Amino acid sequence: MNIRAVAADEAARISAVIGELLHLEGPLLPILHAVQDEFGYIPESAKQIIASALNISRAEVHGVVTFYPDFRDHPSGRHVLKLCRAEACQSMGGEPLAETVKNRLSLDWHETSADGSVTLEPVFCLGLCAQAPALMLDGEVHARLDEDCLSDILTEARR
């Protein structure tokens, strides 16, 4: 498949997503979420297509994508591990756990493993302050973390 065919297929998929949600009031965020669900991230080409469909500037779309930390502008790993960096988690041992995670995965924040299995992201509060420290793996929260449960979670993330 040549580059033009790939680009045309990508544009068609983006346009289909937009078409399903264009009727909504304030459709930008739902469209961005749906595009990310479709591709795993927001492709650069999607920004102009979305902007044209919504009659807004590409810069406005880009601003929303870069403002919200849950939107990605590049592919992530098969698993996304979000580790809470907020004060409550830090006060309950979050920093040593963060260093353990980074060392065990050989990753820093916003990096993806070479095999594409996991992306490590910081998140500033998962809302589990009373059960700190916490993380989220593929949308599933894990709280009251310690070295033992962290080891199991990291094994799962590397699959």
SSE map:
Elements lengths: L2 H19 L6 H12 L4 H11 L3 H10 L11 E6 L2 H19 L5 E2 L5 E6 L11 E3 L2 E3 L4 H11 L2
Parallel strand pairs: 1-3
Antiparallel strand pairs: 1-4, 2-3, 4-5
Helix pairs in contact: 1-2, 1-3, 3-4
Key words describing this protein structure:
alpha+beta, 5 strands, 2 domains, Glutaredoxin, 6 helices, single chain
Describe it.
With 159 residues, the protein is an alpha+beta fold. The protein has two domains: 3-67; 79-157, Glutaredoxin. Helices cover 52% and strands 13% of the residues. The protein is built from six helices and five strands. The chain has helices spanning 3-21, 28-39, 44-54, 58-67, 87-105, 147-157; strands at residues 79-84, 111-112, 118-123, 135-137, 140-142. The chain has a five-stranded mixed beta sheet, with helices on one face. A hairpin with a 5-residue loop joins β2 and β3 (118-123). α1 (3-21) crosses α2 and α1 (3-21) packs across α3. The radius of gyration is 18 Å and the shape is elongated. The mean pLDDT is 92.
